[in-house]
């Protein structure tokens, strides 16, 4: 595993940037075809993210291009490396998996670029790949070790039983999960998620991430799952997972976490089921006695999850209904009709000092992140979680 990248390799990799810009998506598609041919590796990926318009393919294409462009300035990629390491740890990616990816990537480059993929180009990309892999493997080992050694922590997959199932709305259910072994559970950082390894009859092996929707307590986790159209795993959870069902769970992971400072003003901003990590943050803030502004957007009252419970946790709460019904209007169960806008955020939140935490669908996220930047909020005070490629958000 390379300890450094030679100057010759840096030059060759940078010289391939035009080819990657022209053929990167084709290379990534070919790479995934090679990876997914292996049943063991296929189980690591969300199959709904594969295909011609796959956001996962787009994310990797952009990541490879960014790596090539910044091969002589890797400090610019530090944040991305930390996010990738956390994703890998959540999904229990191991060092042995990197060999599969190396073979698929180099093979795809050779296949797509043909004669342009000289031995020098392939060797340079091999060196560059293993250098980055070494950084990720080292960081992932640290994260695995930290989680295993912490109180209530564990290594690998641990069995959890569904202790309680709670219907929140017609399409959203919360599950309380307790370890089968009866031991304590690692206290997560508010905002983190759990990864699950499913082996479903008639469906096959799948891995999924779900945000933890409860504060750290050392006893249990709660996840809150929306049933997605054609969602194999969410459909199974809604239809088949009952109290007593046992699930395989990895330790909490993720770098979208609530800060420790009690002096900073906090604004939590979510839409739809994006509220799940916000509930964990709100419960934690309430326990600290720290004030917070919570802004939540959804379609109408039938889609409102944990409405009253969440509202009671925030010192200031504003609920937006895009299309309230007459029943909603009679019940007065929302505050603003319409969508949250950048203008509303600029006029009604403390953009000059607050830390913003954002989670929701793609369009909502892009609006919020770009709107706050336009309002002068610096990047280091805008924190967001998006279960998809960040590049797909079209944010600066």
Number of domains: 3
Based on helices, strands and strand pairing, what is the structural class? alpha/beta
Low-confidence runs: none
Q: What proportion of the residues form beta strands (DSSP E)?
A: 15-25%
Mean pLDDT: 90
The gross shape turns out to be globular
CATH architecture of the largest domain: Orthogonal Bundle
Number of strands: 12
Strand order of the largest sheet: 4-3-6-1-2-5
Largest sheet: 6 strands, antiparallel
Name the helicity range: 40-55%
SS summary, helix count: 13
The gist of it:
This protein has 13 helices and 12 strands. The chain has 396 residues and is α/β, with parallel strands linked by helices. The strands form 2 sheets. Strands 4-3-6-1-2-5 form a 6-stranded antiparallel sheet, covered by helices on one side.
Outline the structure in words.
This protein has 13 helices and twelve strands. It has 396 residues and is an alpha/beta fold. A six-stranded antiparallel sheet has the order 4-3-6-1-2-5, covered by helices on one side. Helix 5 crosses helix 7. It starts with 6 loop residues before the first helix and ends in an 11-residue tail after the last strand.
